[in-house]
Amino acid sequence: MSNASRPAVRPQNPHFSSGPCAKRPGWSPGVLADACLGRSHRSKAGKAKLAEVIERSRAILGVPADYRIAIVPASDTGAVEMALWSLLGPRGVDVLAWESFGSGWVTDVTKQLKLEDVRVLKADYGALPDLSQVDFTRDVVFAWNGTTSGVRVPNGDWIAADRQGLTICDATSAVFAMDLPWDRLDVVTYSWQKVLGGEAQHGMLILSPRAVERLESYQPSWPLPKIFRLTKGGKLIEGIFKGETINTPSMLCVEDALDSLRWAEGEGGLTSLTGRSEANLAVLETWVDETPWVSFLAEDKATRSSTSVCLKIVDPWFAALGETARADAAKRIAALLEQEGAAFDVGAYRDAPPGLRIWAGATVQTSDLRALTPWLDWAYAEVKKTVAAAA
After folding, report:
1. Degrees to nearest 5, angle at CA 285 with 380 and 128
2. What is the mean pLDDT of residues 210-235?
3. Is residue 1 scored above 60 in pLDDT?
4. What is the rounded average pLDDT of the residues 276-294?
5. What's 111's DSSP letter?
6. Which segments of the chain belong to CATH 3.90.1150.10?
7. Residue (of 87, 180, 193) closest to 141 by Cα position
8. Mean pLDDT throughout 269-278?
9. What is the pLDDT of residue 4?
10. Which three-class secondary structure string do you get for 234-301?
11. Where do the H-state alpha helices sit in the chain?
12. Is 94 a residue whose pLDDT tops 80?
């Protein structure tokens, strides 16, 4: 650990929140000047903007031409729940949970939909469930990247190519920063507010032909709210997947999403975006290797997130504190970093073990993470000194 003197250089952009995430480098409100404001989102101009978001997203992500893409209400949560409520029921379901959002989908499936044939495959924060136990004759619900634990699946090799059930993947903190195997995924959801650094409320729903077939051949026994309905008369409502949104979107947010997508294209597309995120993780890995008081919550490098990097404090002094004192000390570190203007919103998620969570997605500059690490050392030393003096 470095000495306790205050670092001289702050990150140029101290925004390290895991959602909403940092805006792309060089962003300013001026990029919204061409927004389609004061007009119907169903006007020719409005629908053209919405369709452009869909097609630019398809091109950057390499989504197959026969997969449908829709802009839907209520961010990633809305997109996931639209899929769960519309598609689940004909088969048993395996739900994977290794952090808070996966646990949320377990609650939806077991306590809200009240499905009977459900297997929950769980793991503690920092680990993955045993992926070899997943049964692909069943529908499977999982997050690609655990935003609140910093643990991601290593790849798509564990997903059966000849699966009988559907794979429903919450990819909100993975898409645009990790390579997704589209042939293994039937439903993918995300929001603009994560890796794109966009604004909230809007979700994206991507459906494979197999998912569309399920929608057109299966009618759930429970009522579907209007904002969840993807079919009419047993057929897919194709307009939803061409920019005719179910509810009214914010055209300011749409313009912001278009700016992010154009920036991504200018950076070199998905390969460049994943490279930026992996380079950011590498900065933090080097620092952790050299720093005795901290470690990754995800100990297995193969499953360590390159976007939502979760850190645990391993100093014996910290471990000797009581549970409440540990949580308080970790919060003090995050508060001190914010007070100094060095890092905003880097506390661990409320349900996660006490520690820090640093967003390292594609919109974060590697130079800012290099500038951040001395501040992490300084803030930890300051809090340790304060707590020890009060003991």
Report:
1. 100
2. 97
3. no
4. 98
5. I
6. 268-390
7. 87
8. 98
9. 64
10. CEECHHHHHCCCCCCCCHHHHHHHHHHHHHHHHHCCHHHHHHHHHHHHHHHHHHHHCCCCEEECCCCH
11. 44-61, 75-87, 100-107, 209-217, 251-267, 270-289, 316-319, 323-339, 366-390
12. yes
Q: Which CATH class is domain 29-265?
A: alpha beta
Counting every residue written for the chain, the total comes to 391
Other C-beta atoms lying within 10 Å of the C-beta of residue 242: 16
- Tokens standing for 92? 């048993």
Phi/psi for 130 (5° steps) reads: -70, 100
Q: Residue 235: left (phi > 0), alpha (psi -120 to 50), or beta?
A: beta
pTM, whole model, 2 decimals? 0.97
Q: Are 148 and 100 in contact (CB under 8 A)?
A: yes
- CATH 3.40.640.10 domain span(s) along the chain: 29-265
How far apart are the C-alpha atoms of 369 and 279, rounded to whole Å? 10
Would you state the pLDDT for residue 389? 84
pLDDT tier, 390 (very low <50, low <70, confident <90, very high otherwise): confident
Question: Long-range CB contacts (< 8 A, 24+ apart) of 109-112?
Answer: 109/84, 109/141
| pLDDT beyond 80 at 387 | yes
Looking at CATH, the fold of the domain delimited by 268-390 is given as: Aspartate Aminotransferase, domain 1 (3.90.1150)
- Give the CA dihedral 190, 148, 309, 80, nearest 10 degrees: -10
